[in-house]
Design brief:
The chain is mainly alpha-helical. It is 57% helix and 4% strand. The protein has helices at residues 20-42, 46-58, 104-127, 131-144, 149-162, 165-181, 188-226; strands at 236-240, 246-250. The radius of gyration is 23 Å and the shape is elongated.
C-alpha cells in the first residue's frame, strides 16, 4: 500500500481567513478519497489510484509558498534531478484552494495529508514508469515534511531510473539523508548503504559521459566558426604550464 504514517511538518504561516469547519470537512473528504486510492493501489489499478490521490489532494488547501531567501531567488518547487517544475503561478490539477488562515493544529494536519498524498502519487507514477513525475511529486511531499522517509526513498529510486548526472547526484544526497534519519537498528540501513555504494561509480560515469558530450558540442561549435578562416579547434593545443593552469599553443 502506498500510504504511510509519519510525523507532520511544522505548520506554515497563513494569510487568508477561512472557515475552520470547512477545512475539517475538506480533510475528511480528502481522507475518504485517499482510502479509495489505497484500495485501487492494493489491487494494482495504478491509474485509478492516481486519480483518487490527485482528487484528494485537490480538496486540501495548498501549501503556502515560502518567501525566497536573500541568496536564492528560486521557488521551492525547483527541479530535483529531472523533476518537472512550473514557473507560472497557476495551480495545477493536483493543487487545492489557495492557502488560508488555518489554526496551527489544522495546518499541521493538512501538511501531513498533503505529504502522504504527494508521496502516494509518486508511488503510482513509479508503477506507471513516470520517474520524472515521481521525483516531482515526492519533492512536493518533502516540502511539507522534509523527514518523510518514504518520499525520500521513492525520490532516490526514481532519480536512479532517470540515470543522469544531476539525478544520480540527487539520489546520493537522498540516500545520505536517509542514513541520518533511519534508526540504526533498521534493516533498511544496510540496503541504503549498499545503494549509496553502488551509485557512486554510476554517478562518476554519468558525469564523465555528459562532460564529454558537452565538450564535443562546444568543439563542433568552434569548428563551425573557425572553419570560415580555414582553421579548426585542432589548431589550438592546451598544455599544462606547470603552475596549475594551461597554456595555449597555435599549430598549423
Amino acid at each position: 500500500m502506498a500510504d504511510d504514517q509519519h510525523l507532520p511538518s511544522d505548520a506554515s504561516t497563513p494569510y487568508e481567513s477561512v472557515d475552520e469547519h470547512e477545512i475539517k470537512n475538506s480533510i475528511t473528504e480528502a481522507d475518504e478519497l485517499k482510502q479509495e486510492g489505497n484500495e485501487s493501489f492494493r489491487a494494482s489499478r495504478w491509474s485509478e489510484a492516481l486519480v483518487s490521490y490527485r482528487t484528494a489532494l485537490s480538496r486540501l488547501p495548498r501549501r503556502k509558498p515560502q518567501p525566497p531567501s536573500p541568496d536564492n531567488s528560486q521557488d521551492d518547487t525547483s527541479d530535483h534531478g529531472g523533476a518537472r517544475s512550473s514557473s507560472s503561478g497557476e495551480p495545477t490539477r493536483e493543487e487545492g484552494p489557495e492557502p488560508a488562515s488555518i489554526p496551527s493544529e489544522l495546518e499541521a494536519e493538512c501538511a501531513k495529508a498533503r505529504a502522504v498524498l504527494n508521496a502516494n502519487i509518486g508511488a503510482c507514477l513509479v508503477k506507471l514508469n513516470d520517474y520524472s513525475g515521481a521525483v516531482e511529486s515526492c519533492t512536493k511531499s518533502l516540502l511539507d515534511d522534509p523527514h518523510y522517509i518514504k518520499a525520500l526513498q521513492r525520490r532516490a529510486a526514481s532519480n536512479e531510473h532517470l540515470d543522469t548526472w544531476s539525478s544520480l547526484t540527487q539520489a546520493q544526497e537522498d540516500y545520505k539523508s536517509l542514513l541520518e534519519l533511519l534508526p540504526p537498528t533498521s534493516p533498511q540501513v544496510a540496503q541504503t548503504k549498499r545503494s549509496l555504494q553502488l551509485l557512486e561509480p554510476r554517478q562518476q560515469a554519468a558525469q564523465k559521459k555528459e562532460m564529454a558530450e558537452m565538450t564535443g558540442k562546444l568543439k563542433n561549435l568552434g569548428n563551425s566558426i573557425l572553419g570560415n578562416f580555414g582553421l579548426s579547434t585542432d589548431n589550438f593545443k592546451f598544455e599544462p604550464n606547470g603552475q596549475g593552469g594551461y597554456s595555449m599553443n597555435f599549430a598549423r
